[in-house]
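Support request from a user on the community tier.

User writes: "When I paste my structure tokens into the form, the page sometimes reloads and wipes my input. The last time it worked, I copied everything first. Here is what I submitted, just in case something in the input itself triggers the reload:"
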């Protein structure tokens, strides 16, 4: 059984833009920390996709490459850390559709670059459907450390038997961070916990630190007591 992780992080990239997205100084270290943990647990982790390389096309290509290697019972992690946003008052997308603020040469252009030029909710839904067709006996684990995170997957809530979701925020709220992401800090202290108990474990860290959170954990129904 193949176990592959595709990790994407944009942090430093945003300091070179003028569209209001601030630098996220913790992203690279968090991605590398997750990578080391996964490798120690037997996951194959190609080099993470960072900053300027994290274009829509490159992310889709790496997800496709991983999917082609999986087999019908393979396990795949997709992790994204960076900014996410929604288009408001736009004819390009519904106002509740989410996109990752991925690397884009038009990011600094005003008005904003078109919705379809970013890796967005529709793109990821298409990938989840492809995963089901190719590796439906396997396990897809989506881990999103960004604002509006659950909005990326809330349109496919029926596919819960093979798809686990760990999202740092609800579909309509920002993710919280100071020197680091609250969600990732709690998640990284809960790696030994099975997915069915992950919500409780993360909540314990939030309470201990006095943090408020709106994260959502949704384990796959076919993978009880699964430890990442």
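"...and here is what came back when it finally went through:"
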């Amino acid at each position: 059984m193949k176990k592959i992780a595709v990790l994407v992080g944009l942090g430093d990239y945003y300091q070179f833009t003028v569209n209001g997205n601030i630098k996220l100084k913790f992203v690279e270290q968090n991605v590398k920390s997750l990578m080391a943990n996964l490798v120690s647990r037997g996951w194959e982790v190609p080099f993470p996709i960072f900053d300027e390389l994290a274009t829509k096309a490159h992310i889709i290509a790496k997800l496709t490459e991983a999917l082609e290697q999986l087999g019908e019972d393979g396990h795949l992690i997709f992790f994204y850390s960076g900014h996410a946003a929604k288009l408001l008052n736009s004819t390009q997308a519904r106002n509740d559709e989410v996109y990752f603020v991925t690397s884009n040469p038009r990011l600094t252009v005003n008005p904003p670059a078109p919705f379809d030029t970013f890796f967005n909710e529709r793109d990821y839904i298409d990938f989840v459907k492809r995963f089901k067709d190719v590796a439906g006996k396997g396990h897809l684990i989506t881990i999103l450390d960004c604002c509006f995170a659950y909005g990326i997957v809330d349109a496919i809530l029926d596919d819960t038997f093979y798809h686990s979701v760990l999202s740092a925020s609800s579909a309509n709220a920002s993710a919280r961070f100071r020197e680091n992401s609250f969600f990732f800090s709690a998640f990284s202290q809960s790696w030994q916990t099975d997915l069915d108990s992950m919500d409780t474990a993360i909540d314990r860290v939030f309470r201990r630190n006095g943090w408020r959170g709106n994260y959502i954990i949704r384990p796959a129904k076919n993978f009880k007591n699964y430890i990442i």
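Agent notes: The reload is a front-end session timeout and is unrelated to the input. The beta strands are 3-9, 49-50, 75-81, 84-86, 98-100, 139-145, 163-167, 216-218. The two ends are 14 Å apart (CA to CA). Escalated to web team.
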